[in-house]
Give the backbone structure.
Amino acid sequence: MITAASFKDYSEIMDLWESSVRATHHFISEDYIREIKTLLPGLLPKVKLFAWRDDEGSIKGFTGVAHEKMEMLFIHPDSFGKGLGRQLAFFCIHSLNVDEVDVNDENKDAIKFYEKIGYQLIGRDEFDSTGKPHPILHLKYFTRSVS
């Protein structure tokens, strides 16, 4: 079930973020993970957060949107491959009218995920938002036509 998340969820969201990043972002250093983690408490209030919660209310995935863009989408490693990412992405597209996302060019699994569900490349930057040399791909969801 997808619900709005709030300040009281930040601790659980930050723990989930770290677990997800450690499982998927092998291209960034330990120091960079720690650096980003220190920035999260200031970044989370800048996005509208939505969480995918299990029957017990535990957060298994989350997304954050701002300025008509999905700024983050992370799934707990224990829930990889269960469709939660797809559900959160389509929630953003169909319920929030948010159809753009940025993804690290080095995160090949994320790129495959987004392309599989209908996103296409619309741009690229050579550096991430902190100025590090981790290229960012700009993707946009395009409704697939049935032929």
Summary: The mean pLDDT is 93. The radius of gyration is 15 Å.
